[in-house]
Known about the structure:
Chain A is of the alpha/beta class. Chain A has helices at 2-11, 26-31, 49-52, 79-86, 153-157, 162-172, 190-201, 216-226, 234-237, 242-245, 262-269, 292-296, 307-313, 319-333, 350-357, and strands at 39-43, 53-57, 67-76, 97-98, 104-110, 122-125, 136-140, 144-147, 181-184, 205-210, 230-233, 254-257, 276-279, 288-290, 301-304, 342-346, 365-369. Chain A contains 15 helices and 17 strands.
Amino acid sequence: MQRAAAAAVRALRGARVPxxxARVPxxxxxxxAARAPPRGLLYGRHGEPAAVLQxxxxxxxxxxxxxxxxxxxxxxxxxxDINMIQGTYAILSELPAVGGNEGVGQVVKVGSCVTSxxxxxxxxxxxxxxxxxxTEAVFPEETLLRVPxxxxxxxxxxxxxxxxxxxxxxxxFETLRPGDxxxxxxxxxxxxxxxxxxxxxxxxxxxxxxRDRPDLPKLVERLMSLGAxxxxxxxxxxxxxxxDLFKSIPKPRLALNCVGGKSTTEMLRHLQPKGTxxxxxxxxxxxxxxxxxxxxxxxxxxxxxxxxxxxxDQMHNxxxxxxxxxxxxxxxxxxxxxxxACTEVPLEDYRTALEAxxxxxxxxxxxxIL
Amino acid sequence: MQRAAAAAVRALRGARVPxxxARVPxxxxxxxAARAPPRGLLYGRHGEPAAVLQxxxxxxxxxxxxxxxxxxxxxxxxxxDINMIQGTYAILSELPAVGGNEGVGQVVKVGSCVTSxxxxxxxxxxxxxxxxxxTEAVFPEETLLRVPxxxxxxxxxxxxxxxxxxxxxxxxFETLRPGDxxxxxxxxxxxxxxxxxxxxxxxxxxxxxxRDRPDLPKLVERLMSLGAxxxxxxxxxxxxxxxDLFKSIPKPRLALNCVGGKSTTEMLRHLQPKGTxxxxxxxxxxxxxxxxxxxxxxxxxxxxxxxxxxxxDQMHNxxxxxxxxxxxxxxxxxxxxxxxACTEVPLEDYRTALEAxxxxxxxxxxxxIL
Lengths: 370, 370
């Protein structure tokens, strides 16, 4: 994160010169003379994104020996991006900052010491805090990771947070075998949809909890088409009928929690003895409540997961990150992992995209096209 | 537990013959002709202990090849014993049953295949549910464990639950090194006092949370004399002054929770990132509440511990159990582990003992002398 923050600050150096004027580096200026100047969504203070974000011309930092100059292709708006701008997230960028933590870019030029990527390659962030809502940037090689260019651009743009979170939670907490089951709430979220697809690809069955809503049958159909074994509402989770469900599917050894509050306590009740619940979000803004007996007599384990921290821990050895990204891209190629429902929005229309991304029950991820 | 339950049922076979009449096996009858007939505290239905327990003459089962005939010396009244009689515990004995799960006995006679103990040895239960509130019994060898006869009888009688729970929780969840710290609530409980002493012996510092009470200074003094580094009330736990405490002692890597509710949430706040909280009791009868952020951003781990289950898991290989008991006896010999404050009560006065054991703020463990 320190490295990413420093890179973001360096990339932003120009933001402190009079706005509207970009000091485009000579090399880039020559080859892209006809192009629009580099721009990005910048915030100088924390607050509501629509109020504090401004689309400004940005300077692109000088390319150092270990740096990579990229043109961004697409970058999604994720809930954590919103919270970082609001100033409520666990990590905050030094201000002024460019918004966005995820996305895909194409390499334009590399520094003389860069070995892992070359012009034309697609790259995604290997760390949070880079600021991806911009048209181009210079970042240190180590903050980026090459991805194959043969997957859809929207898949690449949304690969480094949600599918990676889903992959790690399925891999790192319980040794799941084909036929085992996993239960998750917020199953319609980006992570939720990735969990359904990755689990399906590995023969693991999923019980998916969603909030009741007017278009429930449509949602159920969509999640089933992704590979969900069961889709139930939070109300159904509390009913004795759940017993019937467990006649055809084993009790889950892993529960993935993105909600908190009562919903989570109910989900936990169905976990196998000695099973693990992993919390990675708290949409209900309520604590996780666990009956003492679940710990003592059922020996359940409660853990947490944060992709940002995981990536930070891999900064000096990216083998696990690379092998995960390769596996995920392989699933994409096989059609087993698709991008979530997306709405592509030109950078100029970022206010519309921000507004849409903050609506409750939103099912479509807003992707800025850069 | 199946084995222990079967043993308890066998040992009780006589309880179904007219009460007050004991069918004493011939061998025992000869050598103990002058002694009172075997007696025990029996319950035929679940309910309040004082109402359902009756002191009755009991038959001692015939000694099988793999059995051990013991004369009980002393047996404590623990909270779990009360809950089992009330019918509210996670495991219940087949009725009618003899109360009590812990205690020390002396071997009178062994079956022809018994190798691990001989007449005169002291033994403690290796499993829950044996029914220790009786003067003598025949149990299978595998449900008992030999202990050295050179430790105080009250130490031996109270060794198999609380000190073992404390030992395992300190050993099995975090790799603690001298200088590390542990925080625990209900620090005045039997387990709490054992945690203080065992931690002290291994150079681990303890922060001990107790409820405020009229004789607080006396309690603080007693826990400090056992080796506590800090004794604080639940109110102090919530105050900003806690910062000062952590100037002289590192934040705990392990929290031991026997309470639940708000007290536990407060305790959790002081845990080191990536630390573990182990829940082994729920005195407040409230769930454990954990802010989602503690899981995601602090990566705390929540686990549970139940000595009964641990022992059950060791049934086929008692090496860990034996080595733990040896370590604990060594601490006893060195004066580093003492029995909790005890009140010795003759078996006949069991109602007084039960009543005293169920009083709030009780600091003295009731021990039936058999």
